[in-house]
Design a protein that fits this description.
The chain has 117 residues and is mostly helical. The chain has five helices and no strands.
């Protein structure tokens, strides 16, 4: 059994030798997730409520007030955003499994593996 120091050094080596930087991938993942969440919140009309709850002293710009959209549009956007987040989570898991196994996974195989499940 390996001790903690050896495990830590191995983990650092795995992250350092990854084909795509884990930090860059995490940043991209978080940015896309926040963008999808923001689109969903905006279409649902919850932006003003969010701003009043978390930033009570900040004036709310007029373009953040709720937009009257049909229910089908709101539902469609919510479902599409949810499906895209699930796809991103699958890509996140496959990326980290590939980094851990030290194998290169082309984006096409990540997308096809996510859509197959």
């Amino acid at each position: 059994m390996m001790n903690r120091i050896e495990l830590k050094q191995e983990a650092k080596g795995v992250v350092r030798t990854a084909a795509v930087s884990a930090y860059l991938f995490a940043l991209l993942y978080l940015a896309l997730t926040e963008l999808l969440q923001g689109a969903s919140v905006y279409v649902n009309g919850d932006v003003a409520l969010y701003m009043q709850t978390y930033f009570p002293n900040v004036p709310i710009p007029s373009y953040l007030y709720p937009v009257a959209l049909p229910t089908t549009v709101v539902t469609l956007v919510a479902v599409v955003c949810w499906l895209l987040r699930v796809l991103l989570q699958g890509g996140w898991v496959l990326y980290h499994l590939g980094v851990r196994r030290r194998c290169l996974t082309p984006p096409s195989s990540t997308a096809s593996a996510s859509s197959a499940s």
